[in-house]
Amino acid sequence: MILEARGLTRHFGGLRAIHAVDFDLTQGEIHALIGPNGAGKTTFVGLLSGRIPVEAGTIRFAGDDITRLPAHRRVRLGIAYTFQITSIYPRLSVHDNLALAVQQRGAADLGRETLAALERVGLAGRAAQEAGTLAYGHQRLLEIAMGLALSPRLLILDEPTQGLANAEIDAFKALVRSVVPETTVLLIEHNMDVVMDLADRITVLNAGEVLASGPPAQIRANEAVQTAYLGG
Amino acid sequence: MKALALHLALIGALLAVQVVLPPYHYTNVARVMVLAVYAMGYNIAFGYTGLLSLGHALFFAAGMYATGLAVHSAPALLALPLGMLAGAAMALAVGLLALRTAGVAFMIVTLMFAQAGYLTILYYGPVTGGDEGFVLAREARMLAGLDLSADGPRYLTALAIFGVALLANLALVRSGFGRVMVAMRENEERSRMLGYDPFRTKLIALTLSGLYSGTAGAAYALMFGYVGASFAAIQYSILPLLWVLLGGAGTVLGPFFGALLMFYLIDLSSSVTDASNLVVGVALLVLVLFAPKGILGTIRERGARWLP
Question: How far apart are CA B216 and CA A217, in angstroms?
Answer without folding.
Answer: 70
